[in-house]
Structures are given as structure tokens and as C-alpha cells.
């Protein structure tokens, strides 16, 4: 009896710990300052919702017309601003340092590949006895053949 009670208590505690941990997963969830900032910057739009005599919205009484949208002049003004920003960014000189770094990196890559091909050309040919490469004896003979006396 007490054994199952202990497991139940342990399960309840584990569940409560898991639920309390959920609060720390989303720390900014209750932060409404961003939403309040956006609302304060937005233009006030008159609602078309029909209201009763006390000022409460009538359920099921949908607006007969849509709320007013942006005017053509406001759209043209915003489009002009975006176009001028795009032209300014397109006319700005590119970052020459970035392109120089890319060119230097490509040159280093080309030189390393060339050095690798040159180094692999000087390697002894694979012997016919093994598919893994030259035998140690072949490498030793090549080293001895390339060594010059130090006298």
C-alpha cells in the first residue's frame, strides 16, 4: 500500500516540476511592451463593428463595409521611399576588402592544389603487388637514389 503511494507521490511531484519548468521556457511571453509600442505607433482605425445602445459589439452583426485602407497617395509615397532606398544601396560601392579576401582565398586554394598535384607526381608509383600503394622497399630505394652525398 505504501509502496504504490510513494510512486504516486513521486509521479505527482515529477509532473508538478515539469509544469513549473514550462514557465521558464518562454520568458518573454508576458512581455507586452513590444506590442504596446507597436500599437502606440499604429494609426487609429475606426471599427465598422455595429454596437448596441450600451456600446458593446453585437454578436453576429458583421460590418457592412470594410474599414478604410491606405490611400493611393500613401501607397505611392511608401513605394517611392522604398525605391530610393534600393537605388541608394545599389549605387553604393561594394566592399572591396571583402572581394579582395575572396580573391586571395581563391589564389591560395589554387596554389595549394597545384602544390598537391606536384607532390603527388613525385610519389613513387604503386607496385603491382598491393593496391594500397608502394611497398616500403620501393620507397626506401627511391629515397636512397635521391640522396646526395654530403661530402
UniProtKB/TrEMBL annotation:
Region named Disordered: 111-151
Superkingdom of the source species: Bacteria
Extent of the signal sequence: 1-21
Keywords: Signal
Annotated protein name in UniProt: DUF4398 domain-containing protein
Amino acid at each position: 500500500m505504501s509502496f504504490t503511494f510513494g510512486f504516486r507521490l513521486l509521479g505527482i511531484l515529477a509532473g508538478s516540476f515539469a509544469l513549473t519548468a514550462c514557465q521558464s521556457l518562454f520568458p518573454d511571453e508576458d512581455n507586452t511592451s513590444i506590442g504596446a509600442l507597436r500599437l502606440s505607433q499604429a494609426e487609429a482605425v475606426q471599427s465598422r463593428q455595429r454596437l448596441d445602445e450600451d456600446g458593446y459589439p453585437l454578436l453576429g452583426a458583421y460590418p457592412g463595409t470594410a474599414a478604410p485602407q491606405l490611400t493611393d497617395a500613401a501607397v505611392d509615397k511608401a513605394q517611392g521611399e522604398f525605391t530610393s532606398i534600393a537605388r541608394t544601396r545599389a549605387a553604393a560601392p561594394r566592399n572591396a576588402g571583402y572581394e579582395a579576401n575572396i580573391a586571395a582565398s581563391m589564389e591560395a586554394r589554387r596554389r595549394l592544389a597545384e602544390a598537391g598535384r606536384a607532390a603527388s607526381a613525385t610519389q613513387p608509383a604503386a607496385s603491382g603487388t598491393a593496391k594500397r600503394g608502394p611497398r616500403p622497399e620501393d620507397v626506401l630505394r627511391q629515397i636512397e637514389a635521391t640522396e646526395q652525398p654530403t661530402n
